[in-house]
Amino acid sequence: NSRGASSLLKGTIPVAEFSASGPFEGFDLMRRGFASVKNELMPSHPLELSEKNFQLTQDKSNFDMLRNIQGIHAPLKLQMEFRAVKQVQRLPFLHSSNLALDTLRGNHECIGFEDILNDPSQSEVMGEPHVMVEHKLGLL
């Protein structure tokens, strides 16, 4: 009797809610780092979004200026070189300096915050190399 069984299970919790993607998911400290409670409680500063998108805005204005001076081919060629350089990366467990990208942007002679104290968005994550590579390739 399937109707009787479904009426008995009305007050129970479905098994899908206990899955790994549900509210009881274990926090993966190795991949995500420590959770920052401060960012969740306090509203972000108005300039934070501007700072996060600074390089994108800078590139866009440089491409517009380059298009006005040299024509449409120059920014397209530079964007193609950017895309090719971004594809070359080290293994997932090693930090990549992106020196070729800095050279294309003209930032290779500038000393910034990330050169001395490292970029906070690329925090050092060291784990088991084989697991991290398999995760990046989608095998895990």
Automatic annotation (TrEMBL):
Superkingdom of origin: Eukaryota
Keyword Chaperone: yes
InterPro entries according to UniProt: Ump1
Transmembrane residue ranges: none
GO BP terms: proteasome assembly
CC terms in the record's Gene Ontology section: cytoplasm; nucleus
Record keyword Chaperone present: yes
Record keywords, A-Z: Chaperone
PANTHER family, per the entry: PROTEASOME MATURATION PROTEIN, PROTEASOME MATURATION PROTEIN UMP1
Family: Belongs to the POMP/UMP1 family.
Protein's recorded name: POMP protein
Annotated source species: Rhinopomastus cyanomelas
Gene behind this protein: Pomp
